[in-house]
Amino acid sequence: MAEPIQGGQVISRASSILRIVSENAEGVSSADVARRAGLTRPTAHRLLSSLAAEGLLDHDSDRARWHLGPELYVLGSLAAERYDITDVARDGVQALARETGESAFLSARRGNETVCLVREEGSFPVRSFVLYEGVRFPLGVASAGLVMLAFSADDEIDRYLARVPLEANWGPQHSGEAIRRRIALTRETGYAVNPGLILEGSWGMGAAIFDDRGRPAWALSITGIEPRFRAERQPELGRLLLEQAHLVGQRLASTPRHASRG
Questions:
Q1: Engineering a disulfide at 143: which of 41, 51, 204, 211 sits with its beta carbon 3.0 to 4.6 angstroms away?
Q2: pLDDT of 10-52, one tens digit each?
Q3: SS3 call for 231
Q4: Helix, strand and coil percent figures for the chain, each rounded to 5
């Protein structure tokens, strides 16, 4: 028997389902949604069907896969005027890809996660595919999430690391002690380095973009193979990241609709 769900729990579970579906461009099955959301299959199916009835999801009956629905497109288009910074930041992403030869990205903070919004391929033929549009990582994981966490307030970092089991989900290199060491180094240099912690041999670097309250709300990052991120090259890559992040921040400051989002 499916467990009853009420009140705020319904909203939380529906939001979780929408995020799960959003991370799978090819669609996702009901069974996968149930597993990833920690729900029974009847409960997952009931929520999926309800979201589809509102136009928030779409079901491909031929392939038995769920996709984001047309109503989300409408809502997203309306919200973009207030939240979307891709037009402002795209030049910076393209400049990083052009000047470094690596894949470049724009990510945004959403609660305790980062979500990749823009990807631009560089000229170097060997690439890393850890990041792509729509992928989410917890704060502290990947260079974008690390740099946004690093420049958060100390008490916020303490609370986050105390309640989020990064080590359990991402391995010993994401223990509280290990992350604090990387936070200290990030604050010293101004940019974050991810030395192949998500996928061996795939490195990344990131720089934060701050909102009008001085909070790290977005990040520019680059990824590539380890030989492209040797210690002697990192300062130059870091300089380019910080330069473009600063330019994006200046553009945002002159665009009132991108005020702080809370």
A1: 204
A2: 888 898 898 888 877 789 999 999 998 999 999 999 999 999 9
A3: coil
A4: 50, 20, 30
